[in-house]
Amino acid sequence: MILAQELIARYDLNGPRYTSYPSADHFSGNWSEKDYQFELQQRAEHRRDDPLSIYIHIPFCENICYYCACNKIITKDHRRSAQYVTSLIQEMDQVIEQLGHPSCLLQQIHLGGGTPTFLSDEELGRIMTALKERFQFSSQGEYSIEIDPRHARTGTIAYLRQIGFNRMSLGVQDFDEKVQQAVHRVQPVQMTLSVLEEARAQGFTSINMDLIYGLPFQTLDSFSRTLARVIEAHPDRIALYNYAHLPHAFAPQRRIDEATLPPGQLKIELLAMAVQTLTDAGYLYIGMDHFALPQDELARAQSEKRLERNFQGYSIYPQFDLIGLGVSAIGKVGRAYVQNVKTLEAYYDRLDQGRLATYRGFRLTFDDLLRRKVIQSLMCNFELEMIRVDEEFGIDFEAYFEPELNRMQEFLDAGFLKIANRMITVATLGRYFIRPICMLFDVYLEKKRDKPLYSRTI
Asked: Which of 85, 296, 408, 457 has its CA 20 to 30 A from that of 231?
C-alpha cells in the first residue's frame, strides 16, 4: 500500500504518542513532594483495596544504542547497581509508608530501562523478594521485564521465571547487520532466538519483540527479511515503533547520519508493508505500534473494547494506580501524574534525606480527564461512542467538542474517519494517522507548536 505523498506531507507532523494525556512534557516543576504525598494518602483513604501497578526503571547499560531516547547511564562498572537496588527498596518503603502499609494486590510489574539484566541475578531477586514481602501478587498478574539478548546470562532466563516474571520483551529493532552497525547495536539473529526459545521452555506466558522502522539504511527488502525472521520466531506480541529522530534532545542520536534515514514516503511504505506482512502472517493490528496473535490477551481485550494505553504502551488492565520507582520513573496516582528526578545524584540525595524522589507532576482537570478518555478510545479501539462519553461526563459531546468536530471534516474527507449514529469510527486508512487524529483533541499542543519536542507521526 502506497499512500499519496500529499497525505504524508499534510499529516506527518510532530506529535505525542499519547502514553498519557497530557503528555509528559507538560508536567510541572512546581509539583512538590507534598502533592505526591497527598495523592498517595488519598489512595490509602479511598482506594486502599484497589489493585496496583509498579514500574521500576533500571537506567544502566553497558553500551549505547544511538537511536535510544531513554534515560540511561552507560557504564561497564556493575558495582554501581548494588547501591541502586538498595535505594529502590528504600523508595519502595517510603511510598508504602504514605499508603499506610496496605499490602494491596499488585496486578502488574514492569522492569524497564536501560538494561534490567545489567543487574545480577541476585539483585533482581532482591527486588522481587522486596515486592513479595510488601504486596500480594495476583495469580493472574502480569509481571514483565525488558531483555537485551546481548546481555542475557546463562541461567538468567530460568531464574527470572523462578522469581516470578511471566512476560518478557526482547529488544530486536532490526536484524539487518548494516542497520545494526549504523545504530551501534550488533545482535546476531541466533542470539535473540536462543533467548526466546529458552523463555518458552521456562514457561513465560507472553513474549514480545520490539522492532523499529525508520532506522538508517532500512529498505523495504531489508526490513521484509527482518519481518520474515520475526514471523518465523512467532512471538506472542510485536511492538513496531517509529524511530523518533530528535538529536537536539538526545545526544547519542547525533551520531546517526541523517542522510541515511528513510524519507517520509519510504517510512510510510515500511509501515504499510510491515502491517500487511504481519497481518498476513496471522497477527492482529492492535494499534499504533502493537500487533498480537489472536489468542493473546491484547487481542481479546481490543475485541471486547476494554483495551487501555499507559506509559508502557497498550495494556489489558484498567487505569490502575501506577507507582514509578527509580530514576526518571513516571507514575499515575488518582488524578495525578508524577515523575522522579532524572539523575542518580539527585535520586540518592532525596532518599537519603527521607524524602520522596518526585520532582514534577501534573494534576488532571475535568477537561483533561474527558479528553484523555476520548484519545484513549480512539487510540485503543478505533472508535468512540459519543453517548457513552455523555453519560460518563455529563456533557453534550457535539456541543462540548464543536470546534474539534469542525476541524475533523478534513479527516472525514480524506477517508480516515466515519461518523454515523453518534459514533466516530477510524477507517483502515485512518489507523496510519491515528496520532494526528487524536491531536485534534489535544488543547496543549498550541503551546508547543513551534518547538519540535515530539517525534514525527509517520
From this structure: 457
Of 172, 191, 182, the residue nearest 231 (C-alpha): 172
* pLDDT at residue 3 greater than cutoff 60: no
Instruction: Give 217-235 pLDDT, tens digit per residue.
Output: 999 999 999 999 999 999 9
Phi, psi of 20 (to 5 degrees): -150, 160
* Coil/strand/helix, residue 267: helix
Please list the residues that pair with 58 across neighbouring strands. 113
How does residue 249 score in pLDDT terms, banded at 50, 70 and 90? confident
- Tell me the torsion sign for CA atoms 39, 41, 46, 49: positive
Confidence band, pLDDT 50/70/90 cuts, at residue 366: very high
What is the CATH code of the structural domain delimited by 366-448?
1.10.10.920
Q: Which of 84-98, 282-296, 398-412 has the lowest mean pLDDT?
A: 282-296
The candidate with the shortest Cα–Cα distance to 359, out of 391, 327, 332, 334, is 327
Residue pair 253/245 in contact (Cβ under 8 Å)? The answer is yes
What pLDDT digit, counting tens, does each position of 284-301 carry?
988 778 899 999 999 998
pTM score > 0.85 for this model?
Answer: yes
User: Do the domains spanning 23-325 and 366-448 agree at the CATH topology level?
Assistant: no
CA dist 189 and 75 (Å) reads 25
Q: How many Cβ atoms are within 10 Å of 4's Cβ, its own excluded?
A: 11
Question: 171 with 135: CB under 8 angstroms?
Answer: no
Helix (H) or strand (E) run with residue 169 in it: strand 167-173
Give the list of residues 6+ apart from residue 96 with CB closer than 8 angstroms, or none. Answer: 102, 134
For the domain spanning 23-325, the CATH number is 3.80.30.20
Domain ranges of the chain: 23-325, 366-448
- For residues 274, 280, 286, 288, the Cα torsion angle rounded to the nearest 10 degrees is 20
Label residue 2 by pLDDT band (50, 70, 90).
very low
